[in-house]
Amino acid sequence: MENPIGNLDRRSLLKGVGIAGAATAVGATAATPSLAATKKVNTPGTGDVTYWNHFTAAQERQGFTAVTDGFAKASPKINLRVETILNDDWMTKYVAAVTAKSGPDALMMTAPRMGDMIKLGGVAEITTYAKQWPGLEPSTEAQKAFVIKGKYYGIPVFTFVDWLYYRKDLLDAKGIKSAPKTLEDFRQTAIAMSDPSKGIYGFGLRGGSGGGGYIPKMIHAFNGPIINWRTLNRTVDFGALRDAIAFWVNLSVKDKAVPPTVTGDGFAQIFQAFYSGKTAMVAHHTGSFVSVGQNWKYGTQVETAKMPDGPKAPTGVFSPLGNAVFKGAKNPDGAFEFASYWGSAPAQGKFLAATGYIPTATAAIDDPFVTANVQFKVAFGALQSGYYNDYTFPNYTTWASNTCLPEVQKSLNGSQTIDVTAKKIYDELGRICKINARNRTS
Amino acid sequence: MSIKSLPSRADKKKTVVSRFTDLFEGKYFAWLLLAPSLAMIAFFIFYPLYRGLTLAFTHTILIESPDSTFVGLDNFRQLLKDPLFWTSTRHTLIYLVIGLISQVAVGLFAAVLLSRERRMIWLLRIILVIPWFVPPVVTAYMWRFMLDPDFGIMVKLAHYIGLDLGGAGIWGDPDKTIYGILFVELWRSYPFFMLFFLAGIQGIPKDMRESTSVDGASALQHFRFIILPLIKPVMFISSLLGAIHLINSPTLILLMSNGGPGDSTLVLPLYAFRKAFQNFDFGYASTISVAVLVAIAGFAIVYVRFIGFGKED
User: Fold this and answer.
1) Can you tell me the ipTM of this complex?
2) Domains of chain B, CATH where assigned
3) Chain B residue closest in CA terms to A439
4) Are A153 and A199 members of one domain?
5) Residue at a domain's end among A362, A380, A398
6) Measured in Å, how far apart are chain A's first and last C-alpha atoms?
7) Residue A32 maps to a domain
8) Under an 8 Å CB criterion, which residues of A touch B?
């Protein structure tokens, strides 16, 4: 598996890709002059293509409709049949489809789920298709996230880029002139912004549904990479892991800087609190950009900032979402045609305008939506200073949501010490890594 | 010496015909008619059951290998040492006992109320049955917001009557979450019992109430000595079905708390679901499911034996 932990910066997206692409083209032409002339192209798809997605939010649906409408015009011979599956049910449906050897033609694949989805055997290798597609950008970090040992498994369509939404007006009123840059700054800001007697808190910590993903990010920030990508062995130091858990938990338990409802707070609750003025900061990806702007005015009331850095590594994550072809798809040509359509800049631009999700196609990054919204400079500035690609090893999402989250919840509600929580998380990661390392060698 | 006459052609024909018609009358024909149903039962009930049972004795982790390895009783040994299994078992029992008692009680109360002959009673009957028609997903999200500690209307109403559901709130406090879900489960499922009981009560002849009135029985005595004994079979079967539903259907828990905070609402079917579809460990998940099956079967046997369904009073 290639090491997907690397820095994504705009330069690498905008220029590196161009240089690499040119170099590749020159190299390929020089090495095999006849190849360029006889380069194959993908067969145009026809017929039905069933596509699984897990978009349910209003903005996501709006953006998705724009993409599918565009595809219908671009590929009129393909009848795209969209099936929406709740994110929570995704793996259940996927496992059932893989076991029954009967699934969709194309489907969504997030980077953290990729390890599990490929290992379960339902994702087709699309190297031949990808290399024949003129829009392929092999050097981008987003594309590299879907490549394992030189084999392509997905075409990226956007990236989740974490950042901080903060109430500029409230911070200004407290005399805090800039967004926090380090985790310690962040903690101090959260404490300063809190007034529990009035039900006001500095930070909307997602300690309920969907909150598991933040915990490995904290551990990474306090330790650096938590596994060795070559051997798949655990590399995290227990002390660093414990410090990370202590930092996260103590924002609530000691600092009283997050709402007391924290262990029940999922996406809806943290944003409801943010929109109603009960919290001053919330961490989420750029996909909430549009809906935040509908509740608070950018520039005066709300602003965005890069995620604060941890003692050893960044907190912010770059996590692409792509489209894959189902192994055994009835219409793989049509499936790849849809995947490649959405992988192109025009389609990504449409999706970006509706949601704020950062596109992966180099040309789409210069979309007027990005240039018109000054807040996106923050996101790209953040990327330049070193975000890391999300983890993708098998069992990662299970570890994050079924071990990290419930164990941290126990510490958040005081029923378990931080040491015990840290030990359980550390041990389970070790167990998973042993299995992955064994499977890798076998 | 008797001479046996050879069967005539007509007799021969009759024998063939009677043999043929016998095919449509004998037990073989009955089996032939039953065959499609038996095949369907075998395919849709016994085969999955057999697969589930055999999986429980294997090491089947899809993310490691699509193949299964027979491990005997290893999964069951692991189950007995698994603290999460015992935690889930305890939560399942709490969910079952409190859920069943509350739903039967409210269902019975509502049924008695609705059995009265009043003008527009049909409208009330329709209104009270509505929760049963609401899809669980809608129920879960609706109540999740209505019981939200900051914005929930029910929490604000509770506050007016002196009940404090603030602080960590129902969904953030591990001591309250399971009761919050039980409350929602009660709201959703009491119409199931109500309909059963109402049908039972309406089957009781009306003149019995007149007779007991003549004998001087109060309404409470009529309920205690007439209605309750007569709807006992209905109560029995609906309670059994309700119990099986409560043990087997973690839908509301999955949607409202996903087993949390911590493990405070983790129940056995949800634990099995996690093991199967999140850890991809189908062997161990089947072992948990077998344990649930044994528990339900045990509960049903004990219930039948001690409550006495099927015995003549």
Assistant:
1) 0.82
2) 9-55 (no CATH), 75-307 (1.10.3720.10)
3) B64
4) no
5) A380
6) 14
7) no
8) 88, 91-92, 95, 98-99, 116, 119-121, 199, 207-209, 259-265, 268-269, 272-273, 276, 278, 394-395, 397-398, 401-402, 405-407, 409-410, 412-413, 415-416, 435, 439
Number of alpha carbons in the 13 Å side-chain half-sphere of residue B133: 5
Domain count, chain A: 2
Does A261 sit within 8 Å of B168, measured CB to CB? yes
Alpha-carbon span B253 to B184, nearest angstrom = 10
Pair A78, A222 in one domain: no
Substitution target in A197, A278, A327, A398 with the highest count of B β-carbons within 10 Å is A398
A395 — alpha (psi -120 to 50), left (phi > 0) or beta? left
DSSP A108-133: EEEHHHHHHHHHHT-B---HHHHHH-
- Minimum distance, in Å, between the CA of residue B278 and any CA atom of chain A: 6
The residue range of the domain holding A122 is 42-160+319-380
Q: State which of A333, A349, A380 marks the end of a domain.
A: A380
Domain membership of residue A419 (yes or no) is yes
Among chain B residues, CA nearest to A395: B279
Q: Is the pTM of this model over 0.90?
A: no
> Hey, what are B28's tokens?
């073989």
Which three-class secondary structure state does DSSP give residue B151? coil
Counting one residue from chain A and one from chain B, the pairs whose CB atoms sit within 8 A come to: 107
Per-residue pLDDT in tens (0 to 9) along chain A, 442 residues:
444 333 434 444 333 333 333 333 333 333 333 333 345 677 777 899 999 999 988 889 999 999 999 999 999 999 999 999 988 889 999 999 998 999 999 999 999 999 999 999 999 999 999 999 999 999 888 899 999 989 999 999 998 889 999 999 999 999 999 999 999 999 999 999 999 999 999 999 999 999 999 999 999 999 999 999 888 899 999 999 999 999 999 999 999 999 999 999 999 999 999 999 999 999 999 888 889 999 999 999 999 998 999 999 999 888 899 999 999 999 999 999 999 999 999 999 989 888 888 888 888 777 788 888 877 777 777 666 667 788 988 899 999 999 999 999 999 999 999 999 999 999 999 999 998 888 776 5
All residues of chain A having their beta carbon less than 8 Å from the beta carbon of residue B135 are none
d(CA A10, CA A383): 7
CB A308, CB A164: distance < 8 Å: yes
- Are the Cβ atoms of A409 and B171 closer than 8 angstroms? no
Are A227 and A234 a contacting pair, CB within 8 Å? yes
Residues A107 and A186 in one domain: no
Nearest chain A residue to B61 by CA distance is A120
